[in-house]
Amino acid sequence: MSLEALDYRKSALLVIDLQNAFIHEKGTLGISGVDTKRLSSIVPPLKKLIKRCQDTGIPVIWTMQEHFAVDQNRAKKKLLGHTARRKQVSALAGSWDEHIIDELKPLADFDPAFVIRKHRFGAFYETRLEMMLKMLGTQHLFVTGATTNACVETSIREAYLRDLDVIAVDDCVSGVNAEWEATAKQIWKQYFCEIAPSSEVLDWIGEQVKPRVTNYGHQLIMVNDIDTSVAFYTNQLGFTIRQAKPLADGRPFTAFHQGIALIHGKTSDHRQLDHIAFEVNDVRALDAKLKKAGVRYFNELHDGPYGLTIYIADPDGTKVELYQVGATA
């Protein structure tokens, strides 16, 4: 698969239940006869991926499964639940079993607000995860953790049903049974998500954070009579005017939600493109790259209306505005 269509700024990494109960040999699964070496094999690549995401600014969200010794709701069931098939109830509230494994705990402590407790398989089920992802602007969810056929699969299905782009990180997901896992991944790829190794995700992050243009911003067009032109775009084409900061040189202009802005020309017959604007992800690094390449500048780094900004010339002399939202001089 190709991750090129995804945007790292709209992505999050979900780490499901990397707790002693499921990963440590002395945790509930270990003492119940499960091969925890298989489960813990995901820790090294996962640790590397988590650190890269945190360094890049991709949110890393952790789930911790938590149970109570007495669960009145579950006790109503007439048929045995999965907890009855183990030596003990896993991840009891406040127990060592519940804790995130020592190898990853410092990374989980990076932002405690991103740790979510859940009481059932699904990461979304009656938790704050869905609202958190909306607040973060997440559209692409990379899923990791344990175990494949229970908490991970349930969470993948929940994410898909919420119209998120879901990517299961192949070598960062593990379960108690290799045969079940292989079947599950076949079903996931058919219906619910794409599957990619962590190496591919790391390469994608590397490409994403290179200094580059990320979005079209706007186009500023010079016109002879700004009132006539504004009336044309609004009355004839249905454009809508948006509020915008005044230009530094004081020329009157009108900006539209549809992506263009109009400005009075410098002379009565001066009809041309004033400039095109694009959002970039690292304007300082891009500035250094362009200077090294000998690109001609109209304006050096400065605080513009949309963020830290430079104005350069393309090979034909067209003015191009490049800005980074949130950055300042």
Write a structural description.
It is a single chain. This protein has 329 residues and is an alpha/beta fold. It has two domains: 8-208, 3-Layer(aba) Sandwich (Rossmann fold), CATH 3.40.50; 213-324, 2,3-Dihydroxybiphenyl 1,2-Dioxygenase, domain 1 (Roll), CATH 3.10.180.10. The protein is built from twelve helices and 14 strands. It has helices at 20-23, 28-31, 36-40, 43-56, 72-75, 105-108, 129-136, 148-161, 178-191, 198-208, 226-236, 283-292; strands spanning 11-16, 60-65, 115-118, 140-146, 165-174, 194-196, 213-223, 241-242, 253-256, 260-264, 273-280, 297-303, 308-313, 319-324. The strands form two sheets. The protein has an eight-stranded mixed β-sheet with strand order 8-9-10-7-11-14-13-12. Helix 4 packs parallel to helix 10 (198-208) and helix 8 packs parallel to helix 9. The chain is elongated, with a radius of gyration of 26 Å. The protein starts with 10 loop residues before the first strand and ends in a 5-residue tail after the last strand.
How do the strands of the widest beta sheet line up side by side? 8-9-10-7-11-14-13-12
Q: What is the mean predicted local confidence, pLDDT?
A: 93
Question: What is the number of helices?
Answer: 12
N- and C-termini, Cα separation:
39 Å
Which stretches are low in confidence, meaning pLDDT under 50 for 5 or more residues running? none
The largest pleated sheet is described as: 8 strands, mixed
Q: In short, what is this structure?
A:
GO terms for molecular function: hydrolase activity. 31% of the residues lie in helices and 26% in strands. The chain is of the alpha/beta class.
